Amino acid sequence: MYSDDDLRSAVTAGVITEKDADALRDYVEQQRSTQFQDEEHFRLVSGFNDIFVVIAAVLALAALWTLGNTVAPWLGGLAVAVSSWLLAEYFTRIRRMALPSIVLLGSCLAGLFAGSFLTLTEIWGDSALVPLTSFIVTTLVAVAHWFRFRVPITLAAGAATTVGLVISAAALTFSFSDSLLKILLFASGVLVFALALYWDRSDLERQTRRSDVAFWLHLLAAPLLVHPIFVTLADQHFAIGLPQALATIVMYAVLASVSLIIDRRALMVSALSYVIYVFSALLDSYGLVSVSTALIGLIVGSGLLLLAVFWHPLRRALINALPQRLSTAVPAAR
After folding, report:
1. 186 to each of 28, 189, 223, how far by Cα in Å?
2. What pLDDT was estimated at residue 37?
3. Could you list the residue range(s) of the whole structural domain that residue 5 is in?
4. Which residues contact residue 89 at a Cβ distance below 8 angstroms, ignoring those fewer than 6 apart?
């Protein structure tokens, strides 16, 4: 089975022409009665070898973390980070394996952050400088990783560490409060969402890795946007009542409309956990504890399945209602 990435690689290598690749795409699209970009395609696993490599890498890196920590936390984190980078030199730069590349990026950044955080905690205690310094180091490595490997998820990972850096800096500079945290998270979500739209806008046909970059940024933007709103709606004890449930429905409907317009299901999936939590808590408050999970699964699952079936007609209706200036800035409705 060949992916769209394979077609692009074949064109780059001169095996086939761009015209032939387009003709093959058109043929496959007609056979499937859909478009590549309509399916929000991105590469994750090309074969079982990807999973095999990930299992082996996780076992080796976990062993390095344990052995290094017997000496010092910084050594365990450094060993994991350096080993992940060296493994990426082969599995990412040479083999271009998607899933191992994602896991190795995560282990590199996580190892570096954990090692520096634990080490600095021993030196500075509970000082706000500990997370700030750890996030600075991790963000710098994420930037270097992007310029070296260009893994699509790297920008989202770097954005996440940058958000942590900003929050840590705010905790060090201002009188920190829950209100400030919510404002920072929401503002970060807006900026990440704008960045995702920028990458989406540069590839409306969804045929390059720029679309994959946008996918991961959308996946990060959704919880950053939704979490502050959800926490604001709920009280300090996270008690959920009918008003909170209705507000959550409205919020998710708005998010679904935006997802339809920009043709990104990742936004809805990323925010789905909040919807499930709200309705599970609501049913529990009415004494339906034993069947709450099944009811939530049935209602939410059925709704999402209906949306999947009618995705294109609904999206076409929304796109047609937009001003032309906006409709031309998103993927064309099919």
Report:
1. 41, 5, 9
2. 47
3. 1-30
4. none
